Amino acid sequence: MYRDVVTFLYHEVSNNPNSTGFLRKSNIPYKHKEEDFVKNIEVIKDTQIIPSTIKDINIKSEKHKIMLTFDDGGKSAMYIADVLEKNNWQAHFFITTSMIGKNTFLNKNNIRELFERGHVIGSHSHSHPTPFNKLTIREMVEEWSTSINILEQILNTKISCGSIPGGDMDKRTILSAQQSNIKYLFTSEPTNKLWKKNDLTLIGRVCPKVGTKISKVRRLANNRGFAKEMLIRRIKNFIRFLLGPLYPLYVKIRHGS
Questions:
Q1: pTM higher than 0.85, yes or no?
Q2: 3-class secondary structure, 173
Q3: CA-CA 20 to 30 A from 146: which of 31, 43, 159, 181?
Q4: Is residue 240 over pLDDT 70?
């Protein structure tokens, strides 16, 4: 049985949001300035809990665990790694492989360097389609498999984890991850609980956006406030239900595509 695991989801960190990651307007709320990100890190550091990765998730601990994850694979990952390593921390970096080598994204050498520095590399799909769960299972498996194959060729190691683009998850998404031999699937469910589907471990995450109050980050880092986060998530899911067939259009507008 796992203890509670507080997993934070971030994306880009840069004082110039146009220098890293996806350049859509919808991504701006996920691009922290350097000073604000460091404040987040200091609050997490105040818990005196050293962030874990999937490599040591099964090690017993007296308190809850914390994990750090970064989606998309933008160039600011190298700066992020520098900040984390000042505290001897490792994190998970999930790569959108169709973007490798693009102007605002990591290249192959960057990815190898992050891996060699002890960070966990995972798949964020190949082309980042949203909403992801509107693909067929076959299309989802193709996204995972293509991405995993590219990363395994770059790193010459097995890739066992992935994160869902846009956080759009359902039973079919889970099945696609299982069929792609993913062992750890990071979701956008704002929970501190891990749960299992056969050999697949699912991990919820909370996502501090630009402007999120540092007091909220502190509560979450100290394993508090998750009931409220889950309630907000349920309300959003209800809106999704009400929109019905219009929801994919809403997502496209939200993501600026």
A1: yes
A2: helix
A3: 31
A4: no
